[in-house]
Predict the 3D structure of the following.
Amino acid sequence: MKKIKRFLPMLLALVLALSLAACGSNSPEPAVEKPDNKPQTTGNEEAKPQGDPVKLSYWTNSRHDSEFIQEKIDHFNKTNTSNIEVEMTVMADNYVQSLDLAFTSNQSPDIFAYPSREHYLKEYVEPLNAYLEDDIKEKFSGSIKEGVNMFEGNIISLGNFGTTIRLVYNADVFEQLNLQPPKTLDEMVETAKKITEYGKKDGLYGWAMNYKNPAGALSRSMGAIASVEGMPNGYNFKEARYNFAGWEPIVEAFRQMYTDGSTLPGAESLDIDPLRAQFAEGKIGMYISYSYEPGVYKDQFPPKINWAATQVPAIDETESEGIINMGGLSWIGMSSKSEHKKEGWEFMKFMYSDELLREYHENGYGLSVLPHVLNGAKVPDIAGMEYFIPTKFDGNWPVQPSITLEGKAVWDEFMKYILVGGDFQSIVTDLNTRYNAALDKAIQDGTTTAEPDPSFDPRSFQIEK
């Protein structure tokens, strides 16, 4: 059975590729009673309950922290006194689809990472209200937000870490060519071209992103630039409408780096870890990514180059109007279909312990957003982390309306344009029409709200330096 579980993600992906996914969904099981508040085990207890262990499956799509989390899970498996054994599966880029297939085919994991409003509406996630002891409620009270990790009063997850996004660059090449980090899109395009002209003969290109996963690649790069310009996900808070027209210079800059040959060949089939490996080898001049990178280069891909990071480029030289969303209020949740909810909560308490979260922060896997974790925590002593410390251009956007979109998402449409071109204005018109239609339907159905705020100023959410 364990062997079958290990191959389940590949099986699910194959089934998805063949379009043979099962359909339908079942209602969640009735909520179980609040589990006993057993003390957290921290030692190396040798006395273990007899009999077969209660096996829990944990799915995540986070690769950057997988070695650290696996070590912690191994410790939990050895030391917990409830005879619980947790097996973690790190999914590839088909995480969302695999979760859907797993739930509709009654093969869902017991615990899974990053539960969202969509999971709540699909009844995938077990509300945690009945499980939260008073001390945990008090610690996390400031980070429980309706519409983010709580819906209709039902808490689906607790926070852990937020992320900042920066332009990561090869400092050695910049020094050799006497280049300054680009501050605008035009400078970024020109810098990528100069690096490629210099290094192409040795396999060095000015720009790369993990274009195999459009949503992941463009949300962390193009989406970050749009957010700092006051256009998060194309949603205009002042008008309470979607409008992607302002994204044109961003999309055109990415397309220009592709068409003029400044983008690493094969980027359209590149995952993020192979990209990091190429960057560590000195084959990429620039890319945009999260504050995970210092920890990744420390533990997984020791770089052969000197590197640095800076604020993502702006559209032009005018002052940026917005912020890049740090997030961090949803980490792990419990499956509504788990047959071992009491044991699942015991594992979740271990994962949310002060010691584990503080070590997570101090090791640079993520910048904690929790005051009780930051209290007494050391600044991560990791090369490069200093570039990712939050500035006034980082913060948390207010919650945007949640919609169910018909057709391709903005990331897929813009990725296609970057690679093959097309009529950009027609693409934007179609996106605006479909996104606003989905918004109108969600408002009509009562599943979301959206009110215009003519005085809205995203700079009010900036974090002061």
The radius of gyration is 23 Å. The longest strand covers residues 54-60. Residues 1-47 have pLDDT under 50 and may be disordered.
